[in-house]
């Protein structure tokens, strides 16, 4: 499962423009600060909903027939404007309404979103007041819009989230690129069809017509009766490019910063010190991924590691360090998200961690279960383990052996050979993992990692890498095998690891995380209802791409203890976006590389 970051220290945005700076340590936790944060959030929600209501009413007024006449011909006559501005007034007003309706930027407290919303509301105030003065509309809509403007001004101090440092430049560039493209296309169409135009319009007149088409205004060029289609075509092309230019520019203007992946060396050392002092969570070691960032509690007793993707700050596992310092570091993480307009989310935390995050205001949803093997109770004996036992015996009879060693026992040549072999076996397949993967193989910075190697007649055929879990545990990090290896090599390596665990001081081993395990299990029970069976069937179909069912069944072979893992999120409306980000972080999809390059230009 794989990822890419936000920064607890100076970090550079994805396009290299500007720095996104956060502090490595937060101020001391203050219970009053949490109450104040929740109170401010309630006020912001009220303003956002007011903006949505005004936006919805504005769009309705712009597109329904009767209000459209008011916004078109009547507004034009009120202001004494030329006939060509009828459609322009409709388009501008509709866009203003859509701008308020899509209040995501306001919900994240972005400064630029506040400025855009305030400017848009001011425009709507002017339009509504003109109608009131001309007695063409009642005073109700004007009062509603003025009230929204007053609320925005009164709550200005709550909208503090910083924007992408390079967003303004990309916004202007996008506006010019799309606008100029639409202008040139319309101008070329006019220039190539002189016989379909009335009279002989000058080049300047054609250019003016092309420019006005971007905002839906009828230009000075007139078309022959037989060329009405050309009039419609140029109008549609111009307006489409104009709207796209505004939308793309608005996206870049309001997008949250997405810093480059970077775990600062100092932060890595602080995280290692926290991991050495406490046993902690089985996923704790994966906080050391170098495409994550970290924020620390006051005094450095606890930390949250996270990665920023598509405006979501995705943390994984429980906070690292002293449990008593968790509330402080959680507040620090949430404050960092507010400062940069990120949506906070947590992937794969334990029940204890989920409780701590829930107390800070996030909602929890059970995502799956972690499989944990206990050395003291693990055995291949007995009927339930017959399948694994038979597989292991078959592999041993065919000449397979297994070696288990700490990475520090390898010399430099052996370590490099292990890393090269793992990369070769994985091939072109993208790295999978974020919450349960370290993103590195046989790295000298992980001397306590355990390497399990399967061999057949002296030739390696499979490998496991496990990282430390506290003082006496291991967490599975990587499982790879030679494409030509015999089936059963993974079962053999896990069985031999458990057999050698005691001599390595290991009492527990965390295997893979099985998503939706309980749903699959419920769907297979006798008497399961149609909903449970249907949901299990959907998950098995999805397993064709994401190995949901096969991973669960592989883990279940070893009769592990199952421990639930949760995903935490601010609100249900954020879940689809967060799950999309989780898929991207874990290496199962997300935004295509070409789109990422386009967004970061």
Task: Please sum up the structure shown.
This protein is α+β, with helices and mostly antiparallel strands and 601 residues long.
Describe this entry's structure for a reader.
- This protein has 601 residues and is an alpha+beta fold.
- It has 4 domains: 11-15 and 263-369 and 566-599, Aminopeptidase, CATH 3.40.630; 31-158, no CATH class; 167-254; 372-513, 3-Layer(aba) Sandwich (Aminopeptidase).
- Helix content is 50%, strand content 15%.
- It contains 20 helices and 14 strands.
- The protein has helices at 31-63, 65-79, 85-101, 104-107, 111-133, 140-154, 167-191, 203-213, 228-254, 265-277, 326-340, 351-359, 386-397, 412-426, 489-500, 517-524, 530-546, 548-556, 575-586, 593-599, and strands spanning 11-12, 19-20, 293-296, 302-309, 312-316, 320-321, 343-349, 363-374, 400-406, 450-456, 459-469, 473-481, 508-515, 561-569.
- Strands 3, 4, 5, 6, 7, 8, 9, 10, 11, 12, 13 and 14 form a 12-stranded mixed beta sheet that branches. Strands 1-2 form a two-stranded antiparallel sheet.
- Strand 10 (450-456) and strand 11 form a beta hairpin.
- Helix 1 (31-63) packs antiparallel against helix 6 and helix 5 (111-133) packs antiparallel against helix 6.
- It is elongated, with a radius of gyration of 30 Å.
- The protein starts with 10 loop residues before the first strand and ends with a helix.
- Residues 1-29 and 65-87 have low confidence and may be disordered.
């Amino acid at each position: 499962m794989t990822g890419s970051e936000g920064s607890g220290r100076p970090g550079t945005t994805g396009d290299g423009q500007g720095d996104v700076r956060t502090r490595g340590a937060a101020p001391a936790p203050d219970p009053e600060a949490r109450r104040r944060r929740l109170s401010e959030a309630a006020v912001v929600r009220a303003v956002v909903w007011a903006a949505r209501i005004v936006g919805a009413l504005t769009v309705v007024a712009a597109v329904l027939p009767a209000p459209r006449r008011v916004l078109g011909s009547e507004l034009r006559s009120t202001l004494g404007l030329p006939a060509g501005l009828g459609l322009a007034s409709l388009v501008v007003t509709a866009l203003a309404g859509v701008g308020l309706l899509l209040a995501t930027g306001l919900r994240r407290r972005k400064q630029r979103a506040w400025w855009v919303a305030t400017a848009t509301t001011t425009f709507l105030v002017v339009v509504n007041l003109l109608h009131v003065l001309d007695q063409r509309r009642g005073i109700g809509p004007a009062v509603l819009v003025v009230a929204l403007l007053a609320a925005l001004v009164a709550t200005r101090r709550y909208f503090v989230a910083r924007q992408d440092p390079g967003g303004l430049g990309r916004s202007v560039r996008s506006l010019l690129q799309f606008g100029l493209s639409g202008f040139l296309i319309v101008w070329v169409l006019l220039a190539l069809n002189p016989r379909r135009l009335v009279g002989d319009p000058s080049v300047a007149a054609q250019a003016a017509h092309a420019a006005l088409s971007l905002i839906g205004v009828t230009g000075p060029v007139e078309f022959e009766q037989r060329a009405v289609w050309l009039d419609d075509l140029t109008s549609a092309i111009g307006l489409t490019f104009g709207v796209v230019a505004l939308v793309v520019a608005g996206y870049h203007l309001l997008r949250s910063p997405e810093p480059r992946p970077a775990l600062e060396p100092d932060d890595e050392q602080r995280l290692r010190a926290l991991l050495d002092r406490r046993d902690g969570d089985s996923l704790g070691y994966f906080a050391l991924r170098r495409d994550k960032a970290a924020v620390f509690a006051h005094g450095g007793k606890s930390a949250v590691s996270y990665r920023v993707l598509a405006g979501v700050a995705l943390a994984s596992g429980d906070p690292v360090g002293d449990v008593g310092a968790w509330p402080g570091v959680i507040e620090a993480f949430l404050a960092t998200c507010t400062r940069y307009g990120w949506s906070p989310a947590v992937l794969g935390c334990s029940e204890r961690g989920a409780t701590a995050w829930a107390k800070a205001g996030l909602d929890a949803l059970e995502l799956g279960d972690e499989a944990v093997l206990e050395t003291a109770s693990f055995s291949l004996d007995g009927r339930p383990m017959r399948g694994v036992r038979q597989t292991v015996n078959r592999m041993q009879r065919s000449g397979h052996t297994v070696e288990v060693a700490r990475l520090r026992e390898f010399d430099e040549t052996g370590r490099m050979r292990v890393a090269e072999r793992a990369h070769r076996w994985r091939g072109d397949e993208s790295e999978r993992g974020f919450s349960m993967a370290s993103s590195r193989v046989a790295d000298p910075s992980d001397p306590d990692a355990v390497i399990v190697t399967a061999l057949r007649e002296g030739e390696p055929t499979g490998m496991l890498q496990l990282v430390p879990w506290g003082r006496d545990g291991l967490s599975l990090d990587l499982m790879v095998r030679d494409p030509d290896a015999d089936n059963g090599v993974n079962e053999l390596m896990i069985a031999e690891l458990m057999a050698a665990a005691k001599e390595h001081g290991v009492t527990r081993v965390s295997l893979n995380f099985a998503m939706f395990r309980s749903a699959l299990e419920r769907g297979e029970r006798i008497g399961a209802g149609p909903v449970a069976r249907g949901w299990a069937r959907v998950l098995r179909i999805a397993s064709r791409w994401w190995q949901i069912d096969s991973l669960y069944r592989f883990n279940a072979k070893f009769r592990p203890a199952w421990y639930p893992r949760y995903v935490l999120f601010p609100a249900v409306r954020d879940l689809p976006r967060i799950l999309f980000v989780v898929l991207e972080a874990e290496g199962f999809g997300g935004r295509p590389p070409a789109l990422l390059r386009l967004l970061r230009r």
